[in-house]
Write a structure and sequence with these properties.
This protein has 219 residues and is α+β, with helices and mostly antiparallel strands. The protein is built from three helices and 14 strands. The strands form two sheets. Strands 1, 4, 5, 7, 8, 12 and 14 form a seven-stranded antiparallel β-sheet that branches. A seven-stranded antiparallel β-sheet has the order 2-3-6-13-9-10-11, with no helix packed on it. A hairpin with a 3-residue loop joins strand 9 and strand 10. Helix 1 packs antiparallel against helix 3. The longest helix has 22 residues.
């Protein structure tokens, strides 16, 4: 009986590991075009990313960045997410706008923090770089900018405690009589390590079997 009880505990651990692993493949370096494949999803750590969309426009002779022109690099570590890299640039009387959307879901634990940052940016003579990010359910917002009023290169939200977020990034550059450039946008998330309820149930089942055996053995 003890052997059977221990097997039940081991099975609980094994099934919980399979439940958390899931069938989704790891995110890899590629272009935005790859991430736009219908039905595409991928994982970084215990986060799954899906529902990608992208659009880009430009005016005044500026060049709109196509999906194939945006490099997507997974970010791993204490915070997980993506780095988006492209040669966004405008000159006087030009403008450019790119929008990146996707949904992030925690496969275990909760999403606690959201971080948005930029690098490789610059302006001259009234140029403007602005990156706004909004989320759905709940409605939240982040804002980065570099213009004549100052610079904010990173923004974050903490204490979220959410299982899923749908995010939209609006990357906008305007010459306004000068120039504006941008090359990197980072979007990262941090998560807690709370076990999945299903995993806890499986583990509890095994432990109850062991407790029942021990109670019968020593009564």
């Amino acid at each position: 009986m003890l052997k059977k009880a221990l097997v039940a505990v081991g099975l609980a651990f094994g099934l919980s590991s399979l439940a958390m692993a899931g069938p989704v493949g790891a995110c890899s370096v590629g272009t935005m075009a790859m991430y736009l494949t219908p039905g595409f999803s991928c994982s970084i750590g215990n986060l799954t990313f899906s529902g990608f969309s992208y659009s880009s426009s430009a005016f005044g002779g500026a060049t709109a960045i196509p999906a194939a022109g945006v490099t997507v690099t997974p970010i791993t570590g204490a915070e997980e997410g993506f780095q988006f890299e492209a040669p966004w640039a405008v000159s006087s009387a030009q403008g450019e706008d790119s929008a990146i959307d996707y949904t992030v879901t925690a496969t275990s634990g909760m999403i606690n923090d959201l971080l948005l940052s930029m690098a490789g940016y610059g302006i001259t003579d009234g140029g403007n770089v602005a990156i706004g990010e909004t989320t759905v359910s709940p409605l939240l917002s982040l804002l980065l900018f570099d213009n004549s009023t100052g610079t904010m290169a990173s923004d974050s939200l903490t204490g979220l405690s959410l299982t899923t977020l749908s995010v939209t990034k609006d990357i906008a550059l305007a010459g306004n009589g000068g120039t504006a450039t941008l090359s990197i946008v980072d979007n990262e998330f941090s998560t807690s390590s709370v076990p999945e309820p299903a995993s806890m149930l499986l583990l509890g089942t095994g432990l109850l079997a062991l407790a029942g055996y021990l109670r019968r053995r020593w009564s």
